[in-house]
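User: My collaborator sent over this chain with a note saying "see what the structure looks like." That's all I know about it. Can you take a look?
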Amino acid sequence: MTDLDGLKLLNDRFGYSAGDVLISRFAEILVGTGLDAYHDKGDEFICKGQSFQDLNGRLSEAQRVLRNQPFVVLSLDGRLVTVNGADFCFGIGTDLEEAEVSLKNQKELRKASR
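Assistant: Without extra context I'll predict from the sequence alone. Here is the result:
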């Protein structure tokens, strides 16, 4: 299970169309790294893989791509703005419940390290 970081901030700063661009871009990156990804709700995606190692490797690659590839959004005042990249957390489990707990733990670790 994945969850984008900072989507609310992006929406507040540039508008919901910017958030939609990021969500679409995220979906493309997940699929582009070979993940079997499904949009769950909001900015969350469920990804399936052959093993923990397979998922961890592909999701880590998706993180690298999303972090390092700028994207353009239309701001609330009609200007095109380049966003330098984005990030997400992910949790892996043998079922959805386990993945959600893992994701929650990853978010808490990230928060604590800031």
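A starting point for your reply to your collaborator: The first helix runs from residue 7 to 14.
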